[in-house]
Design a protein that fits this description.
Blueprint lengths: L32 E5 L11 H15 L3 E7 L10 E2 L4 E5 L2 E11 L6 E6 L1 H4 L15 H19 L5 E5 L5 H7 L11 E6 L7 E2 L20 E2 L2 E3 H8 L2 E4 L2 H6 L10 H6 L4 E3 L29 H12 L9 E5 L8 H11 L5 E6 L3 H13 L4 E5 L3 H10 L2 E4 L9 H7 L3 E5 L2 H6 L13 E3 L4 H17 L1 H12 L6 H19 L5
Parallel strand pairs: 1-2, 1-7, 2-6, 7-8, 8-12, 12-13, 14-15, 14-17, 15-16, 17-18, 18-19
Antiparallel strand pairs: 3-5, 4-5, 5-6, 9-11, 10-11
Helix pairs in contact: 1-16, 3-4, 4-5, 8-11, 9-14
The protein binds adenosine-5'-diphosphate and alpha-D-glucopyranose (GLC).
């Protein structure tokens, strides 16, 4: 994006003392330098797919020779004693003065890729990442404005001047705005910015009166930056300020430019449609590999998946369901929010229970949904189990042990579970939206082709019909199911393709910012 009017310079930053000689990179070593900022990064802390992406994409980019470094908060529960504490403190300019933050450094597992943890206990030493289930901490704007600002201060302090800065979702939406404003005339202003939307449903909406918390003047509260229908909207500001925009699947990139999926930002996104790319997520094929998964009962692969039956039996046993190999087992995993369509599924289940099936649900979130599924599990203990909570191991066992995975999403920017399930030979039954449409090939009854089952309308009838279709295929055309499982397991969902696309995006952002190719 073209440079904007410079804002008033920020007050001089008191000398900081973080010494990081060993990690300072001399500019001009020929490698593209990228700062990747995210509010959650697996395996350190995760609430959803953003963490999965932030934990793996940088690794794939590193393998392409990019000097990429990750920044996230030091949350409660992160094993800080395994991290190296950098000397001194970061002085982060905030509206209340300079906040002094510690910095700890770790590595993405299995790599030499630095992850910097911003340590500021007042904001991050809390039991939840964003707030208790169904709620948001009242100072989230402050917390994430701080993270955004701190990540830029960190770069300057350790002498890592990135060529490109990649921010993700509303929590780090201020990063591209700061680069265009408070970093004006400072070295970071030369960094191209990429902003990725993982989920447009969360935009960072706050009262206009909170504008001061960003540290930016009220002159930025205007319809071309933060103001959106009378509120302050962080994502809108990022959409306006970032050099390039991306989202996590090609279909979602198109959908969010329409009123049905744009959550009020469709006009803004259409305005920048030329700069908005859909890059399909990959998955961590090491963590999610049925051939080497310590969480599951027996290993298997696409060449021989007979041991999948062992995983199914082990799951049935763990769940206390009847040990019946021939009854189809349906898995459901995900956040219990409106996005995932589980409210509609709730209305379909009674009819699905008329069939001889078993269903297991793992999820947490919305209180009402949690209570409903608990209640249903107590009433239909013959066929239904609900685990309300977050359990990585169980998620793996469900992907491995189920025959089908249900994802009736209302909208789905990308979705990872349907890719995990295919890798485990578990056929996804999905609504045809967003990344689900880009990753699942609908079953063709005439040829047996496909990797899953797709329905279009989000209503209980459509879910019941499609579950019924899967069920009849399972019973009447088992050879099709076997061929589909194998095909699904052979899909390439690795990050290599996406990493190449992100590298391209970074080079393009650099060119927009600097007016020349990165060399
Ligand atoms: P979203 O990011 O919208 O939640 P994704 O499908 O992209 O959806 O990613 C969700 C990730 O979180 C997956 O890795 C999934 O296995 C995991 N997950 C969601 N809910 C749970 C849960 N209750 N227990 C364990 N893992 C979960
Ligand atoms: C979001 C989306 C999900 C996507 C994930 C990672 O949380 O809801 O569809 O897979 O981000 O990009």
């Amino acid at each position: 994006m073209a440079a904007r009017t410079p804002a008033a310079p920020t007050p001089a930053i008191p000398a900081t003392t973080v010494s990081a000689d060993r990690i300072t990179v001399q500019s001009g070593d020929g490698r593209l330098k990228v700062l990747f900022v995210a509010s959650e990064v697996a395996p350190f802390r995760k609430t959803g797919g953003l963490a999965d992406v932030a934990g793996v994409l940088p690794r794939a980019l590193r393998q392409r020779g990019i000097d990429i470094r990750v920044v996230m908060p030091l949350y409660q529960g992160i094993q800080w004693n395994n991290l190296e504490q950098l000397d001194g403190t970061l002085a982060v300019p905030m509206y209340f003065g300079h906040a002094r933050a510690g910095v700890r450094m770790g590595r993405l597992p299995g790599t030499d890729l630095p992850v910097y943890f911003i340590e500021y206990n007042r904001f991050f030493d809390r039991p939840y990442v964003y707030g208790p289930p169904g709620q948001a901490y009242s100072d989230n704007l402050e917390r994430f404005a701080f993270l955004s600002r701190a990540s830029l201060e960190l770069c300057k302090t350790i002498g890592f001047i990135p060529d490109v800065i990649h921010a993700n979702d509303w929590q780090t939406a201020l990063v591209p705005v700061y680069v265009n404003t408070v970093e004006w005339s400072k070295p970071l202003h030369g960094a191209g910015t990429v902003f990725t939307i993982h989920n447009l449903a969360y935009q960072g909406n706050f009262e206009s009166g909170a504008m001061f918390i960003t540290g930016l003047g009220f002159e930025h509260y205007n319809p071309y930056e933060f103001e959106h229908f009378g509120d302050m909207n962080l994502m809108k500001a990022a959409i306006r300020h970032a050099n390039l925009l991306s989202t996590v699947s090609p279909t979602y990139a198109r959908e969010i430019q329409t009123s049905g999926y744009g959550f009020g930002l469709d006009g803004e996104l259409a305005l920048r449609g030329h700069d908005l790319r859909g890059v399909l997520n990959g998955i961590d094929t090491r963590d999610w590999d049925p051939a080497h998964d310590p969480n599951i009962a027996a290993p298997y692969n696409a060449a021989d998946f007979s041991a999948k039956a062992t995983c199914k039996a082990a799951l049935q046993q763990q769940l206390g369901l009847a040990l019946r190999p021939k009854v189809p087992l349906f898995g459901v995993v995900g956040r219990l929010t409106a996005q995932k369509g589980f409210d509609v599924l709730a209305h379909a289940l009674e009819r699905i229970f008329h069939w001889d099936v078993q269903i297991v649900l793992l999820g947490n979130g919305d209180h009402e949904a949690e209570a409903f599924f608990r209640y249903l599990a107590s009433r239909r203990s013959d066929k239904f189990r609900a685990f309300i909570g977050f359990d990585e191991g169980l998620a793996h066992r469900i992907e491995a042990g189920s025959d089908f995975l249900l994802m009736p999403s209302r909208f789905e920017p990308c979705g990872l579970n349907q890719m995990y399930s295919q890798r485990y030979g578990t056929l996804p039954i999905v609504r045809g939206t967003g990344g689900l449409l880009d990753t699942v090939v609908n079953y063709d009854q005439a040829t047996g082709n496909g990797t899953g089952f797709i329905f279009w309308d989000l209503n209980p009838g459509a879910i019941v019909d499609t579950v019924g279709w899967a069920l009849s295929t399972y019973i009447d055309r088992p050879a099709h199911i076997t061929a589909m499982r194998k095909r699904a397991m052979e899909q390439d969902f690795s990050w290599d393709r996406a990493a190449a696309a992100y590298e391209q995006l970074y080079r393009e952002a650099f060119k927009i910012r600097r007016g020349q190719e990165f060399k």
